[in-house]
Amino acid sequence: RRKEALLGDAMEAVIAAVYLDSGLEVARALVLRLWGARIDGVAEDARDAKTALQEWAQARGLPPPKYVTVARDGPDHAPVFTIEAQLTSGEAERASAGAKRQAEQAAAKALLIRMETQDD
């Protein structure tokens, strides 16, 4: 793990150097060239949580889950949203993130994991 951390630190330094020397677009192009496919995969996984929870609920004859904003904390330039994903059965999970969409996805994922565990 220490080696991975050192490699991560070194890559962060390289990206920072490219950014400082050549600007945001060049640094962005470098990151996308090196990790674009992985970044797309992470984004796809995140998008799937709400859909997966909705499909899970639908398969059990439940209406789609609701997403309720429970709190908005932090300064205006760096808000933190707390969202609760709710099923009509009363089950719910909360998650917080810097964007509503991210918090909804995280709450959906947590609720889906819990519900699938209960199904077993």
Task: Give a description of the structure.
The chain has 120 residues and is α+β, with helices and mostly antiparallel strands. It has one domain: Double Stranded RNA Binding Domain (2-Layer Sandwich), CATH 3.30.160.20. Helices cover 64% and strands 18% of the residues. It is built from 3 helices and 3 strands; from the N terminus they run ααβββα. α1 packs across α2 (24-59) and α2 runs parallel beside α3. The longest helix is centred in the middle third of the chain and has 36 residues, at 24-59. The chain is elongated and about 55 Å long.
Please write out the topology:
Blueprint: H1 2-22, H2 24-59, E1 66-73, E2 80-86, E3 92-97, H3 100-119
Antiparallel strand pairs: 1-2, 2-3
Helix tally equals 3
Quaternary status of these chains?
single chain
Helix content: 55-70%
Structural class: alpha+beta
Straight-line distance between termini: 34 Å
Which architecture would the CATH scheme give at its second level?
2-Layer Sandwich
CATH topology call = Double Stranded RNA Binding Domain
Q: Which residue ranges are poorly predicted, with pLDDT under 50 across at least 5 consecutive positions?
A: none
Spell out the helices and strands N to C: HHEEEH
CATH level-1 class = Alpha Beta
Give the neighbour order of strands across the main sheet: 1-2-3
Strand content: 15-25%
Largest sheet: 3 strands, antiparallel
How do you describe this structure in short?
This protein has 120 residues and is an alpha+beta fold. The chain has three helices and three strands. The chain has helices at 2-22, 24-59, 100-119; strands at residues 66-73, 80-86, 92-97.
